[in-house]
Every structure is written in C-alpha cells, then in structure tokens.
Design goal:
The protein is an alpha+beta fold. Helix content is 36%, strand content 20%. Strands 10, 11, 12, 13, 14, 15, 16 and 17 form an 8-stranded mixed beta sheet that branches. Strands 2-3-4-1-7-8-9 form a 7-stranded mixed beta sheet.
C-alpha cells in the first residue's frame, strides 16, 4: 500500500515529490514506490453559499434573515473544481492506505486539507507532516517524524469554528446592512473593529490642540547644556519660567556637581514574526502588508530561502540551535559575508534572548533556511525582504553593542543643567546595521512623542566634579506638541496586534485576554483584512497615510456597536485558541455565535439610521443607467455603479512610477485613448505621447509595449476586485 501526500500548493507538492522520489507524472499528482503526492491550490473547498440551502436565500430579503442553517455545509469551489476531482481520484484509489496531510502547518492549512478529505467522503488513516520550512532537509526530517493526525483534531475544530463564525456573523450582518440601506455595505468580526481604531485615531488628530513648550540651552566648555526644570523636565509650558532661568544664569558660572560614567549594553531586536516584518517592510520600502506576505510566500515556497512565514513567534526552539551554523553559511552570498565570516570563526550558541521553547507557539520565528539562495534570481521585493530577515537573524547571533554613557550635572544659581554623551566601545550587532544603506534603515516614528529638548551627543568633553563652566551664550528653544500620526499600514498592523490602548472601557481581565489572543485577527489574516477595507472603499490612502472614507465612517455608525469593539473579537480569538488547545468545545462557541448573529440582524432591522452617498457624480452607468459613484482606491480613482447588483466599474486614474520632471513625485495616468496624460499634484501635465517621446530622447523611457501592457492591467481591473498591488504596475518599466 502507498501513502497519499496532500500539499497546499503545486510548488510545495513538487518539492515533496522530488525529495521523496516520486518521479512518475500524472494528472495533478506525482507518484513513486511509496508515496503519491498531490496538491490543492489553496482552498479547494469552502462553506456553501446561502443560495445553496434553498430558494429562501437566493434573493436578498430582510424577512429571510437571519440565515442560520442547522448544519453549515461545504462545497467545491467551481474555479478549482478540476483539481479537487484530481485529488479525490487519488484518495479513492484502492492502493492508497494512508493520507498524509502536508498543507501549511497552521490553523488554515489544517482546514484546507480536512475539508477536501471531508468533501471527498474518504475515511482512511491520516498522518500529519508538520514542518516550518520546505528545504530538502526539513522535508526528510518531517517524514521521519510524521504525527498522528488525531493530535491536530482540536486545531481543525478551531479552524472550522472560525470559518463558520465568520459566515454567520459576516454574511448576516452584511446582508442586513446592504438590504436596509440599498448600498454595498459590509461588516465583520475583525474589519469593523479595525475601522473603529482608525476612526479613533482620526478623532484624536482632529481634536488635538497644540501647545507651545519652552526649554533652555546654555553653551559652556565646548558643550550645549540642557536646563532641567524644578520638576526634572527638559521643557515647560511656561515661557516666563524658562526666561526667568535664562536671565538668572546668563553670564554666570556653573559648577559641575556630578559626573556619572556607566558601561551600557544594547541588544539586538527580537527575531521577526510576520507582523513585525510587515511593519518594517512598510516603513522602509512602502510595501503593503499583502505584498510583504506575497514576497514571503515566494521565498518560502519557491526559493526555499526562509522558514514558514505565517508565525506569531519571535523566538526559536532549542532544537534549532544546532542548525544555526549551517544557516549562517547559507547567508554568505549577500552583503553580510563579512559578518557571517566572523560568526563562523567561533561556535555559535543559543541563549535566552532568542531561544525559548515556552515562547514559541505553532512555529518559531522567521529565519533563513540552510539551503541558501542565489540573490540574482530574486525579484526586487523578494530580495529586500530576504535581506531584512537575514539582517535580523545575524544581529541576534552577534554580541551586544557596548558603549560608555556619561551624564554630567552642573548647577548655576540654583538651576540644574544636564549633559549626556556616549562613546561606542564595541559595535557588536550594530555592525550588521552599519552594512545597510541609510535609506534601508528608515527611522521608526514614535506615535506618542515626548516633548523635550535634551539630546545625547556622540561624544562630550571630559569633565570633573567641581569644575567651573562659564555660561557665556545660550537662549530659549521652543516647540509645539504634535498630534498622533495618521496610521500607515505599518502602524495599523501594530495597532491590530496590540489594540489594548483602544479598549478604554475594558476591565483588566479583558485587556489581558486581548493580549493573550494576539490582537485583532491573526498574523495570517491582517494583511487580507486591510486589503478588504481598501477593496470595499471604506479606507483610502493619502501618500502613505490611511484614512477613513465617508463610507467607512457611515458603516461604523450603522453597524451594531458591539461589533465595532476590539473587546468582542478578543473574546472570539481567545475562545478559538482555547478550542485549538482542547480547553473549550466548538459546539458551545457555535451556539453563542448563532445567538449573536440573530441579535445583529434584529438591531439592524430596528435601526432608524440612513446611509447617504456623498460621492455621486452626474455620469450614468452604461449598463443600468443609474448615476455612478467616484471612489478613491489604493492606487488611484475609479467610477463604480451605485447599484450593487450591476457591479459596473471604470478606472479614471492610476498612480504610476513615472516621476514628475518638476517636483519628482509620482504622477497619475488619466484619460482614454489619445487623450491619456500624466498628471501631477503640483499641477504639471503631459500627454502620454509627449512623455514617451521625451523619455525615448533621454534614453530610458517606457516602450509602447510596456504602456500597452499597463493599460491592459487597468482594463482588467475594471472586471475584478480593485486594490491589488497596482503600485507595481509600472515597476519594471524604466521611467
């Protein structure tokens, strides 16, 4: 008898087949002496549409809500039905005695395989391949240590509970809102609280009142001394108080009261989990969360260069330590060759700063594999993400950065002044940082900036206790408090991961529950949630900042208020985690969700609130004749029909990588046919034909073929959901 291996994607399936000696090809599978390897295409099976349960739900009518079937059924996804049949044929073979689940090692991966097996109606013994990377070595080790699939039954039940809860709450809420207001509105257990977080930040910014603050800097003995108020602060809101101190010490002599010198160490940041990686990629390169995940999947599946990406752990398990030297050797082809060489001269050991079995959930942190990769074969985004992962991995293996910190305190006329400086003694992990370009390490913005003027200088003169300092020059420095920064994708991901600060009314126990649940959504779903909010025109981008649209604000007002709170989804995620760990029962969770879904429908039905389109244009839809809406999506503008059943849409403009010759910002491509032109926010305009001619004369323009390919993408978008990563539409065109 042979074993059937079910992988999640063809690329992984082929890798497993190669490693396990399955060379004979067939329709959707590869076969060897011991194993037959087949694969899904992601999900091949999904929860059945409401329409499949009977005529009562084929039309969207309020009187047929809530939709709560006694048992939620599953159906084959039509688009990938052929591959489902190919997998089913292999499962039903008489010479197949065992099924090995080899889908991604996580909650959703478990669901992919189990639903295929359930829909096929096959009941054969099952085992589980649980690996964190798809290198040849990891695959061999995984097959040598196959698990009994029954060990993952609770994980499967948690995955089903999540999917069914989303179906019952999301579809009932969305249908009720859409029918009630005759507009394409949606709500969900994660997306609606995410909108609420953005709204709260916008309210903070709108209601912020700047305050001017003051400090005092005095010069003496080759250094700039910072005044300390009686409260020990480096700034005050009273200008008179700062002026009083200035008048008192100007031209006077200060005496050094204390000189403190202390040896300090700074340690490398933690290894990456997916969210932390998405945040840095957005800050440094402007990659969206979805783009980063896509690059990661390619590095994981196609290039075998990194470990499993959808992890929420930032530590390694002890068994990984022995593989560290091999992983370091795999990183030597890049810009970190010198660091790798230094590390390999001595034994590489693990320590508690990055190795802790108790802090690892399903998968350890993201690190390079032992296999290595040819950097020349990576796309731009893939290489940048790979270099980020390598830099963080090498940094934790390096010694800490060591420096001497000096703090000098002086007193003049009873007023205290401070001076700080540090001298680097051993760069340690900072050597990794110094190898990267300045633009690569963009400085992280602090959302809640402390006011103050005290600086720490790289080096300061030597001072001794009792030394006299003449304050011959100096003056008042001033500034204004700043509001919180608007969300970017990086900071929104951080807020979704840790939304405790947006839970003002929650008690301590619930705040703790939110932390244990891991925030809103999971590392695997947050990128899709953000993309969905863009696709449905509830949020939009201005430069890198995310802001609510009118539609988003109205949905928050129209949706049941409990559904907008992070507290609710925290409870759900905690319960799902408990189900996965065998601490709670799926049926109890489902019973509560059914009651809640019915309550949502009742609340929406009884609401007296109204939805108003404030973006109507005078242009009529060519399909149904109704007035169209102008919407801003992630990378441009488009017209969409207001009738949700019509669905017509037309692109108006698209942000490109073409730079304005005046202000050098990215320009939009607008218009149709011969009237197409590039437009810049600064007012610059240029016809597409003139642009092509100018670039051709300068020796690096976009060819007609390039532009034609781009316009085909724009036309294709009119037929599909918008806001895919179209910022890359001209990425390969040298403009």
């Amino acid at each position: 008898m042979k074993s059937l291996v079910i992988a999640e994607k063809p690329s992984v399936g082929r890798d497993i087949a190669r490693v396990m000696g399955c060379k004979q090809g067939g329709n959707g599978y590869l076969e060897g002496k011991e194993y037959v390897v087949t694969w899904a295409l992601g999900h091949l099976v999904e929860l059945a549409d409401p329409e499949s349960y009977g005529d009562q739900w084929k039309e969207w009518k309020m009187e047929t809500l809530p939709m709560l079937p006694e048992r939620l059924e599953i159906q084959v996804i039509k688009k990938t039905g052929g591959q489902f049949q190919a997998v089913k044929r292999q499962m039903c073979r008489k010479d197949i005695g065992c099924i090995i689940i080899a889908t991604d090692a996580g909650r959703e991966g478990e669901l992919v395989a189990r639903w295929i097996i359930r829909k096929a109606g096959v009941k054969k013994p099952m085992k589980r391949l649980w690996i964190s990377s798809v290198t040849d070595k990891a695959i061999r080790q995984g097959f040598a240590n196959l698990k009994d699939a029954r060990e993952y039954q609770s994980l499967y039940e948690a995955a089903v509970a999540r999917a069914e809860a989303d179906w019952m709450v999301g579809l009932n809420g969305t249908r009720a809102l859409t029918i009630k207001h005759n507009a394409q509105l949606s709500c969900g257990r994660v997306q609606t609280p995410t909108l609420a977080i953005i709204a709260k930040r916008e309210a903070q910014i709108k209601g912020f009142q700047p305050k001017e603050y003051y400090g005092l800097k005095m010069k003496g003995a080759g250094a700039a001394w910072t005044w300390k108020s009686p409260q020990g602060k480096s700034s005050v809101f009273s200008k008179a108080e700062a002026e009083r101190a200035r008048d008192l010490v100007m031209g006077k002599t200060a005496v050094v009261e204390e000189v403190k010198k202390k040896q300090q160490k700074s340690f490398a940041p933690l290894l990456y989990d997916l969210t932390a990686l998405q945040q840095d990629a957005n800050r440094m390169f402007g990659f969206s969360a979805k783009q980063t995940l896509d690059y990661m999947q390619a590095l994981y599946e196609r290039h075998k260069a990194v470990t499993y990406p959808r992890t929420d752990s930032r530590y390694l398990t002890a068994d990984i330590v022995e593989t560290l030297p091999e992983r370091v050797r795999a990183c030597r082809s890049g810009i970190y060759a010198s660091v790798c060489g230094k590390l390999l001269k001595a034994p590489i050991k693990g320590n508690a700063s990055f190795v802790d079995d108790k802090k690892v959930s399903d998968h350890h942190a993201i690190i390079p594999t032992e296999q290595g990769v040819d950097l020349r074969g990576l796309e731009y985004g893939e290489r940048k993400i790979y270099e980020l992962i390598v830099s963080r991995f090498l940094a934790v293996l390096m010694p800490p950065c060591e420096y001497q910190q000096t703090q000098v305190t002086a007193v003049c006329q009873g007023e205290r002044f401070s001076l700080k400086g540090r001298v680097l003694q051993r760069p340690g992990w900072q050597e990794v940082k110094s190898l990267q370009a300045e633009a690569f390490f963009a400085k992280e913005e602090d959302e809640e900036r402390d006011i103050g003027f005290e600086d720490e200088e790289a080096g300061i003169p030597d001072f001794s206790k009792g030394q006299k300092i003449a304050f011959t020059d100096g003056g008042i420095v001033r500034g204004k408090t700043k509001p919180p920064a608007p969300f970017t994708e990086a900071t929104l991901l951080a807020a979704m991961e840790n939304p405790v600060k947006y839970m003002e009314g929650a008690d301590k126990k619930l705040r703790q529950a939110m932390g244990e649940a891991g925030g809103l959504g999971t590392v695997a779903t947050r990128a899709d949630i953000i993309e969905k909010l863009f696709h449905s025109f509830m949020i939009e981008k201005k430069d890198q900042s995310i802001r609510l649209t009118s539609k988003g604000r109205q949905v928050l007002d129209l949706a049941p208020q409990e559904l907008t709170s992070p507290e609710l989804t925290a409870r759900w995620e905690q319960e799902l985690t408990d189900i996965a760990r065998g601490k709670a029962k799926k049926k109890d969770f489902e019973a509560r969700i059914r009651v809640y879904a019915a309550d949502i429908v009742k609340e929406i039905k009884a609401s007296s609130k109204a939805y108003r389109h404030d973006n109507l244009t005078s242009k009529k839809c060519p399909e149904c004749g109704k007035l169209m809406l102008e919407v801003n999506h992630k990378n441009g503008r488009m017209l969409v029909c207001q009738d949700r059943e019509c669905g017509y849409r037309k692109s108006l403009s698209r942000v490109t990588n073409a730079r304005c010759p005046k202000c050098h910002k990215k320009m939009e491509l607008t218009g149709e046919g011969e009237g197409r032109r590039f437009v810049c926010a600064c007012g610059y305009r240029e016809k597409l034909s003139a642009f092509e001619k100018r670039r051709k004369e300068n020796g690096g323009g976009a060819s007609k073929k390039d532009v034609s390919r781009y316009m085909n993408q724009v036309r294709q978008e009119a037929k599909e959901p918008v806001n895919h990563a179209f910022a890359d539409a001209l990425a390969k065109i040298k403009l």
